[in-house]
UniProtKB/TrEMBL annotation:
GO terms for cellular component: cytosol. InterPro entries: Chaperone_Skp, Skp_dom_sf. Residues 1-31 form the signal peptide. GO terms for biological process: protein stabilization. Residues 61-118 form a coiled coil. Residues 176-200 have a biased composition (Gly residues). Belongs to the Skp family. Residues 172-200 are annotated as: Disordered. This is OmpH family outer membrane protein. GO terms for molecular function: unfolded protein binding. The keyword Lipid biosynthesis does not apply. Keywords: Coiled coil, Signal.
Amino acid sequence: MLPRRLPRLHAALAATVLSALVSLAPASASAEGKIAVVDVQQAVMQTEDGIRAQGTLKKLFDKRQKELDAKQAELQKAREDIERQARVLSREALARRMEDWQRRMVELQTSFVDYNKELQKKQGDLTGPILRKMMGIITRVAKKKGYELILDRSATPYARPDLDLTEQVVQMYNSGGDGGGDAPPEGGGDKPSGGGDEKK
């Protein structure tokens, strides 16, 4: 059967792109040593685009899972039929039935591999543009706030909560903040409403 969890984003890709941010901060940041973390997987999946992508992937996953379950049930029934008739079938007939069953089993295994490849490709098609846009936002935050290093949260054993920019970059993404405007304040917080809210 297909795996019960959708495949994760390629962590190596995210880590590679994030590591490139080391040289993006202004020179003055080296003295301050400002470091932050972003959970790239979580950030991508929490965006509005990411949520829609997950819905599309789940529909495809469920469809393929149903197809595999049906084929597996047919094979199980065929195996039981062969076992029941084993004593009355001739040796040649039994061999033909078993050969046909084994062929169908190989086809099922091939379908399993093909479906997983299809899911991975679809995930890349759907999440690739989201990931690239997210990396652009992270880059802009790094430049504006003078971060010397931004790490993938999933690759760090520990990071103080106030160093986590995940919620901020998700808010920026959902508000279309991939170009222009100010980066959100450090330490998270709700997205400001369009009005006369008191500034801190």
